[in-house]
Amino acid sequence: MKVKARKVGHSVTLTVPKQLLVEEGQEFEVQRKADGAIVFIPKHRNPFEGDWYNADLKQNEVLGDQEVLNSEWS
Predict the structure, then answer these.
(1) Residue 72: which pLDDT band, with cuts at 50, 70 and 90?
(2) Within 10 Å of residue 40's Cβ, how many Cβ atoms?
(3) How far apart are CA 74 and CA 72, in angstroms?
(4) Which of 43, 40, 45 is nearest to 13 (CA)?
(5) Are 37 and 31 in contact (CB under 8 A)?
(6) For residue range 14-45, what is the model confidence (pLDDT) as tens digits?
(7) Is-above-0.70 flag for pTM?
(8) Which InterPro entries is this protein grouped with (predicted)?
(9) CA distance linking residue 49 with residue 46, whole number of Å
């Protein structure tokens, strides 16, 4: 797969092909290696930062009287 750098405003842009399934707004850390390779590493949300769990964490299923055991403990 080959992409070509192009100028957009005052920046140079590399287009990410649709096949790579990158979501709009996804953030990356960027590194330039000694051999000239440019590496994009997806940023992951810090689970201990912010108040994300109030919006993202949903518990919709109620198990009632069922007991759920981890196979290690049974």
Answers:
(1) low
(2) 15
(3) 6
(4) 40
(5) no
(6) 999 999 998 888 899 999 999 999 999 998 77
(7) no
(8) SpoVT-AbrB_sf
(9) 5
